[in-house]
Amino acid sequence: MKGLNKVKKIILAIILILVAAFAVGCGSYDFDETGGYIVTPKEALELAEKGAILVDAQSKEEYGLMHIEGAANVPMGALTVSEPYKNMLPSKSQVEKVMSEAGISENDTILVYDNASNMQAARVQWTLNVYSNFNVKVVSGGLEALKKAGAKTSMDKTVLEAKAYTAGDKQKSLVVSIEYLKSILNMPEEDTVIIDTRSGEEYAEGTIPGALCIEYVWNNYGNGEYKNSRDIQSTYLNKDIMPDMKIILFCKTSVRAAQTYTALKDAGYKDVRIYDGAWLEYSDVENPAPPSENVLPTEQDAS
């Protein structure tokens, strides 16, 4: 028995050393303060009780089938345009119109959820961030996670009292145009990395020159909730993505990229941008480059 206890103590000591080493490793990098972009389902329900507004980013049809009781519907698609390419940023006036009609002001605490691996909610968040509203948080795990946390569901539309929403100035540091992208491809910038958040299969068919493939699903645990900030840091540090780098994200239409934007910003990465035109635009105007070997495996990490 004494021998067994000794072995247990040795194993525990090794585990503590490994945990400490990991903590020191992540702590040695200059990340911004973590948190602020993602909330747990429990935190979301507590904030909603205090007056925060739950926003369902599903389509009107999906919202009508099931949503969290009391949640207003702001479909992701209502905050995009499809010209010249699908799912591009809307105008300031469109943002103001959609949010005002939903009964939401820029002063409200907005808690966005979806039923699509955090993609739609993150895209709504990024869009509102672009127009200077950072009082927006994504509910990790979305509809299913909220249900597990005890939230009631409904099929009845939530109608909020009309409010005026005023959008701020466009934050150009959050958006990349094809002109800027082409300029850094011609004259590479130090400490700038382009991340393709699409699947490995899509990446293999062609990508932006020099892009690193880190599929968006690697931001989630197996239950569909976002990884915590430590695990996100570990995932990207292991691919040599440092907190001070300028990170440019893209996918097919900047929806999966937005999911990664939220993960990285919540984990303390400082300069994270999305190429708005995304692969649809790039592949239309440029010759796709053959992929490199930098592909993170496409299996979802359930650790």
- Overall average pLDDT: 90
Largest sheet features:
5 strands, parallel
Q: Which runs of at least 5 residues are low in confidence (pLDDT < 50)?
A: 13-25, 296-303
Overall strand count: 12
The structure class reads: alpha/beta
Which fold name fills CATH's third level, the topology of the domain at 172-285? Oxidized Rhodanese, domain 1
Q: Under the CATH scheme, which architecture of the domain at 172-285 would be assigned? A: 3-Layer(aba) Sandwich
Rg (C-alpha, Å): 21 Å
Q: Helix amount, in percent?
A: 25-40%
Sheet-strand content, in percent, reads 5-15%
C-alpha end-to-end distance: 32 Å
The CATH superfamily label of the domain at 172-285 reads Rhodanese-like domain
The global form is: globular
The sequence of SSEs as H and E is HEHEHEEHEHEHEEHEHEHEHEH
CATH class of the domain at 172-285: Alpha Beta
Strand order of the largest sheet: 1-6-5-2-4
Number of H/I helices: 11
